[in-house]
Fold this protein.
Amino acid sequence: MTFDDFDRMRPAPSRPSPGSLRIRGATLLGVWSVVFLVVWLVVGSGEERPLHDPGAKPRTAEPRGDLTAEETSTIEVFREASPAVVYITATDLRTGLFGLNVYEVPAGTGSGFLYDKEGHVVTNYHVIQEGRRWIVRLSDESEWDAEVVGVEPDKDVAVLRIDTPPEKLRPIALGTSHDLQVGQRVLAIGNPFGFDQTLTVGVVSAVGREIRSVTGRKIRDVIQTDAAINPGNSGGPLLDSGGRLIGVNTQIASPTGGSAGIGFAVPVDTVNEIVLELIRYGAVRRAGMGISAVDDRLTRRLGIRGVLIDAVAENGGAGQVGLRGTLVDRRGYIRQLGDIIVKVNDTEVGDLNELKDALEPFKAGDEVVITFVREERLGTATVKLSDLN
């Protein structure tokens, strides 16, 4: 069989009949008629309308009704409280490549608020911790150099002071936090992302939360809120519906770094106690046993749970009841393992932070029962606490 045979076996192409051509042509004509009709209806069969109308008149604005009671309250709270909110800039010093020039670089920004007429400003410790110079900008846009009065890193609180005429200062109204209720309305004022005097509104989402400070210590009774808190709000006030301070905004929980509706504020009851001591003494006065502890990393390597005593002050409470420290020879070998504190009263202690947390409620002169391990045996001692400062 040749290629010519294959060609002869192929079916001949079909040709449309004259009737089918007439039907197809009529169909296409009908489709184009419909398209033309639609276009004619859309565009219009009359004359083309002008694009501009010189006689156009302004629309009349509809008068609004009275503000709601909630809106009026929010506006009033902001007007009263916002003059107390400040913007804080921390700067650090850097030298040039060859040490010839010294210049300032930003080291942190955040919010704060005026605490009293003496020029004290309260903010978060983490807002100012990297700075060597601090500038406070008031709501009237005036800027003032500030000095650090005192800090409490364990609670993320710091107090600055500006030398400002008292008539320029409008301190914030103080409230309480022990009586807060979930669902209570709250307002936050601060400088998120540098947009100063920003107001956000929400509710108390939860009370009694615990968060970690920059030192790893627990901050108890923290307020959780869904009022939008963003970077730059740190150190700013959280207010109740009456415009009273109930907390200091300090952290957010967010996978993106922006507000996810979970913000935390250090409660004002805690802040008031800390601020008073910082203003009085420059530090928070704590009670302790008169011991130093071995670093937690070493105790963990030794497989120890608890606080291993490194040294005991002779005139401290621990020394007076015979607690022992760790003895190390000149080569650094441990010759005598010190006592390991595992409990304060009924509170178990697993590391140094937990020991500090357990002693936090007590003051100098109080007595606590210490449970300790010595040579694999449990012992107890009643220790009188003294002022660590």
Remarks:
- The CA atoms of residues 364 and 386 lie 4 Å apart.
- The longest strand covers residues 198-212.
